Amino acid sequence: MANSDFVICRCEEVTYGQLQSTADKHKCTARELKLRTRAGMGFCGGRTCRPSLDRIIENVIPNTALGEIPLKYQPPIRPVTFGTMGENQ
Known about the structure:
The chain is mostly helical. It is built from four helices and two strands. 40% of the residues lie in helices and 6% in strands. A two-stranded antiparallel ribbon has the order 1-2. Helix 1 (16-26) crosses helix 2. It is elongated, with a radius of gyration of 15 Å.
C-alpha cells in the first residue's frame, strides 16, 4: 500500500511504518495511536497532516469506532516568527 518510510506528520516525524507497527503491537484505538506516536500533535496542531492521518488510521485500524472521542484539535491562535520572539529578549 504505502511506503513505510513515508512521513505522515512532519512536525513529529511520524512515518506510515511507525503508525502501522504501533497499531499492530498495541492493538490500540485511533486516539491511542495518536497519543502513542504523537502524530498530529506537533507545532502545527495537525493542520497539515490531520486529514491524511485520519484516513490512514482508518486503513491501519479496521473497524474504527465512529463514536470514539477524538483528540482535541487546537491550531495555534496565530503564527509567530522566530524573529518576533527574538526581539523580546
